[in-house]
């Protein structure tokens, strides 16, 4: 099996200011981080330049969203071209807050994924079921359908990280158990094997998000198909360093 490089993304969401984010940045810059782990911090768009110019270059930066075209009359939006122009190499797309607070459809997320990849950004593509969907037994159906739309818009999987984030676990303190995470990740990898290719199934990083903390990260990281994390709340705290270093 291909060795997949562990990937830990921080998603700062709409939190912090230059002072507090500067504090996290200096903690990360001076921390001892596993060099085998790829680390990317998702900054609010107005702080992308600040984050990129203050974070050590061994740490990547991600935008938390972008639009589906390069430029034009789209008030309030930012484009992959602008993100690249700030020296930033990643974008988070399809996050559950974009889907469920801002009503982004699978179709729009697919178009954004295609354009971001064409613009040479790496994409952290997020999927995940809501609590009622899990309780109704439709988790697989939901995450396969979301992954399908993403897959239809990807030519080069080398620049894609798939983030499985059950909506019921995001910001709730209710983390998926390692078994629950592994079960979905394994099924997603099998779906990719059946619908994309063996190579992509072996190489694509499938990361888990939803109430990951310094306390639960090691057990989650020990699961075969958990290739890293997307971390919200805890990415604003010093324990983010422990999460980055979770893989033994
Ligand atoms: P959380 O957020 O770690 O605060 O649950 C995860 C995410 O939304 O990516």
UniProtKB/TrEMBL annotation:
This is Triosephosphate isomerase. It holds the Pfam family TIM. Belongs to the triosephosphate isomerase family. One of its GO terms (cellular component) is cytosol. Homodimer. Triosephosphate isomerase is an extremely efficient metabolic enzyme that catalyzes the interconversion between dihydroxyacetone phosphate (DHAP) and D-glyceraldehyde-3-phosphate (G3P) in glycolysis and gluconeogenesis. Its EC number is 5.3.1.1. One of its GO terms (molecular function) is methylglyoxal synthase activity. It is an enzyme of class 5 (isomerase). GO terms for biological process: gluconeogenesis; glyceraldehyde-3-phosphate biosynthetic process; glycerol catabolic process; glycolytic process. It catalyses: D-glyceraldehyde 3-phosphate = dihydroxyacetone phosphate; dihydroxyacetone phosphate = methylglyoxal + phosphate. Coiled coil: none annotated. Transmembrane segments: none annotated. Keywords: Gluconeogenesis, Glycolysis, Isomerase, Lyase. SUPFAM superfamilies: Triosephosphate isomerase (TIM) (SSF51351). Pathway: Carbohydrate degradation; glycolysis; D-glyceraldehyde 3-phosphate from glycerone phosphate: step 1/1; Carbohydrate biosynthesis; gluconeogenesis.
């Amino acid at each position: 099996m291909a060795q997949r490089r562990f990937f830990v993304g921080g998603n700062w969401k709409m939190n912090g200011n230059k002072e507090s984010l500067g504090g996290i940045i200096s903690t990360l810059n001076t921390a001892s981080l596993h060099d085998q782990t790829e680390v990317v911090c998702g900054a609010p768009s107005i702080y992308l330049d600040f984050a990129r110019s203050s974070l050590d270059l061994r740490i990547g930066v991600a935008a938390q969203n972008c639009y589906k075209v390069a430029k034009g009359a789209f008030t309030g939006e930012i484009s992959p071209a602008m993100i690249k122009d700030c020296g930033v190499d990643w974008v988070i797309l399809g996050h559950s807050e974009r889907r469920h607070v801002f009503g982004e459809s699978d179709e729009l997320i697919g178009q954004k994924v295609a354009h971001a990849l064409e613009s040479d950004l790496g994409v952290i593509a997020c999927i995940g079921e809501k609590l009622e969907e899990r309780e109704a037994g439709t988790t697989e159906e939901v995450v396969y359908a979301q992954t399908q739309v993403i897959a239809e818009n990807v030519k080069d999987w080398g620049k894609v990280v798939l983030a499985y984030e059950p909506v019921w676990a995001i910001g709730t303190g209710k983390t998926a158990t390692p078994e629950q995470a592994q079960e979905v990740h394994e099924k997603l990898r099998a779906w990719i094997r059946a619908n994309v290719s063996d190579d992509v199934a072996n190489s694509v990083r499938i990361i888990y998000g939803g109430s990951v903390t310094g306390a639960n990260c090691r057990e989650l990281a020990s699961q075969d198909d958990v290739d890293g994390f997307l971390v919200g709340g805890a990415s604003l705290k010093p324990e983010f360093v422990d999460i980055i270093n979770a893989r033994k």
